[in-house]
Amino acid sequence: MVLHEPEDLLLYEYDGSVEKGRPGAVVFPATTHDVSRAVRLAAQHDIPIIGRGAGTGLSGGALARTGGIMIVFARMNRILELDLENQRAVVQPGVVNYELTHAVEHARLYFAPDPSSWKSCTIGGNVAENAGGPHTLAYGVTSNHVTALELVLPDGEICRVGSRHGDSLGYDLAGLFVGSEGTLALVTEITVKLLRKPESVKTLLAIFDRVDDASETVAEITARAITPAACEMLDGWTLRAVEDFIHAGFPMDSAAVLLIELEGLAEVVVAQVAAVEEVCREHHAREVRIARDEHERELLWKGRKNAFGALGRIAPGNYVLDGVIPRSKIPQALRRIQEIGERYNFKIGNIFHAGDGNLHPIVLFDPRDAGQYQRAIEASAEIIRYCVEIGGALTGEHGVGMEKSELMPLLFSDDDFALMRRIHDVFNPQSALNPGKIFPLNKGCGEITPRAQAAVRAVPL
Amino acid sequence: MSTVATNVAARLETVIGAARVNGSSESCAKFAVDGVVPSAVAKPASSAEVVEIVRFAKSEKLALIPCGNGTKLGIGMPPARYDIALDMTGLNQIAYYDPGDLTLSVDAGMSLTQLADPLAKQEQFVPLAVPFFEECTVGGTIASNIGSSLRPGYGAARDFLLGAEFVNGAGTFTKSGGRVVKNVTGYDLHKLLIGSLGTLGAITRLNFRTFPLPEGYGHLVSTFSTVDSIVRFQAMVSKSLLSPSSFDILGSAAAQTVAELKDNRHSSLPWFVHGAWHVCIKFEGAEAILRRYSSELAQYAEKCGASNYHLVEKSEEKSLRVGLRELVKLLSCPGPAATIFKINLLPGFPPDGSNLSALATRLSIPCCIFASSSGPLYFALRPDDVGDKTISSLRHIASGVFEYATTHNGSASILFCPTALKRVVNVWGPTRNDAALMRLVKNAFDPENVFAPGRFVAGI
Fold this sequence. Notes:
The structure holds two protein chains of two kinds. By secondary structure, chain A is an alpha+beta fold. In chain A, 32% of the residues lie in helices and 19% in strands.
């Protein structure tokens, strides 16, 4: 199937980011050979190729920045093999993240990466972006769970890297391709590890009257190495917006809450719950609630996972950042974000993977106002610059894509780019695959360049 | 000393100063790889000096091998060229350590023991429980990707290495990843350095996630008379809710080697039974958790027909732990002919694993097998000599092992063996179908083949 009518292509012009880019045509291959044929054809005519899963990405990774043929993996959505004995699954890239967990739940197994878009995002997309999620705190990001890949190179050649067991001889090529954002090869088959479900899960909601107390609590939980399975923070303003919409039971008058999940052997969880409660109380938590049953637990998570939808109702536009910082520096970072928001006169909400130090400040603005848009971009760049200054990085799980490529020089030198560029060029010499991503176009400028009008909608996270 | 050697050393001195260069034949011999002796040893004190040395080597078309303390230089094929040993032990500081964030940045030349002390003061550690622990460097551990006995509980290096700094073959200082625990900014080039054996560049610094030292730990050693019961036992534990931090399966000769580890600091290990298979499991946590592990593991062992099981006494624990950690070293030591295969298979111990021993016993070569639950499986041979007949037997066994790995959807390499065997067998096994992609990576990192040419997979 091929789409080329403008009204059809419109659908593929967006992803979950504020970026835009329209493909010239969209194809839906059913097999690896279809992919290879499409790639060969494009190569003959010097046309760019862009791989795409469900289009839920948050950095413009799956957008046709310079036009070209978009390869959508929606039809390559079969689970090819479940090897429950060895805790492995072989899937096509279009399999939806949640579908894999659903397919192995009966054996008490699951696929660990769980981005908030897990009910719609594809595993191929997770591989391209090296996706995370709340539970990566304990279990790692996508690359920790991928052992082998089948790839189509830009000349159409099909090859395999890695192995089912995960220990390869030679260079860790699977480790290189996961997270390469579709700029080195198209992934057409993925072998992943499946984890065993824990014996016991406890979900806590700790309620604070001061943001500082909540962020000090996170730093202390980390320093005491308690290692929850997830540790999420919502500031008061954000949780009120969420509560209005979701009714998850978040207290309307608090300054911040922590949503902390502890998993493992029953004995381990009992001890961890006690330890977390102690840290919360030492840092003046007003209350620590423990979800009494699965229903309460799901409600709390529903509040967290749909938070960005809720925020979308408040402001006409928002910009979600993805900076990462050392966890010992969360309190000072949140204070700085607050200060930056005040200086630029924007409301900046905070709802993020606190346990990983993966911030998601969300800048609310009206994109119809060109001046506001520009200032929102500037405020965001200042926040990211601060993350890098205190030892952090630009993106913890969303990828660089086209959104953050111009910020890359904050972190990387010309020599770093030269080596990354050589790696890019040995696999993708003509830049036929996903052009205009990761690498800055105006190298060395270190500023976000103005873009087309931002998308006016909420961003799931 | 040959004229060439004098020349390389003398010219190097003009680049980084006489204090950093040693051209004496005695020093060079210490860094020999498979009998190939370099012409000079350069010991940089900073990454800027590493850059100078690499640029010098590149412009003079000389070959470099980055070295730590040299414990694992025997891994890989003999180098095609080797002019300068790059002694990285001059870079040996902790650059950054944030115990509150559980992150660490350490120079590649620091030894693992040196690193352990400051971390232990904060009740933390990096889970690299590797052979040669007492002598080796952080950089060598990562570049060789030598197996850690704590892998079942803590993962492999790729799971907790956060970033790296290195000097690539173009002679530029580059970095990848970062110091934070979650990061997708740019290509994960540091993952490629793991196990790259110095063929992509000289690692100058590595960033790790650190882990809290466990509150307490225990070991259960169980004895089995058949491989089948071990396979059942392993499957039962892996399907349970328990997650031990290490799980080592020892054939009888391997258990004997651990038991005989002579070290006055530690006590003897009474429960290793001659002629039996043993499974040694380490578990960690608070008292209540240790009690649960002990009783559940004992139950499983009993159900699977263990002839015996013991909870290891506190006084015996260190001997056992060190013995298991150092097994690869112990088996690579006995003589110049010692040969160790590393076989990467799926997690479960293969029911026909003892077929491997048959390959060796048929040729009257003493051997042993041991494995970790998370892979790999090691097959160690201890022939008496390196005569032609032995080499020919080893060659025969090698093709059997490579075939075994292939038929089990795995892969195998020879970790350590006599240089004579490398003349007739490629230690990396049969040609691989991803060889072309590996060469592309090598070309990007080291376009002029300055680093360790010929030692690696696919002729790299």
